[in-house]
Amino acid sequence: MDSIKLAGVNKAVYEEGETGIAMARHVMERRGVDAATIKQLLGALRKLWKMED
Length: 53
Hints:
By secondary structure, the chain is an all-alpha fold. The protein has one domain. 58% of the residues lie in helices and 0% in strands. Helix 2 (19-30) packs antiparallel against helix 3. The longest helix is centred in the C-terminal third of the chain and has 14 residues, at 35-48. The protein is flat, with a radius of gyration of 13 Å.
C-alpha cells in the first residue's frame, strides 16, 4: 500500500462492480453535491445495475 501512496494515489477501489460508483461519488463530492443527493443517485444506479435489491 505504501508504494501506491508514493505514486500519488489517494483513492483505491478493489471490487470491479464498485469502480463506477466510486468514481461518480468522487466527482460529485468534488463538485459540491450534497451527501443526501449523492446517496440517492448512487443508490438508484446500484438498483439499475442490479448491484443491490
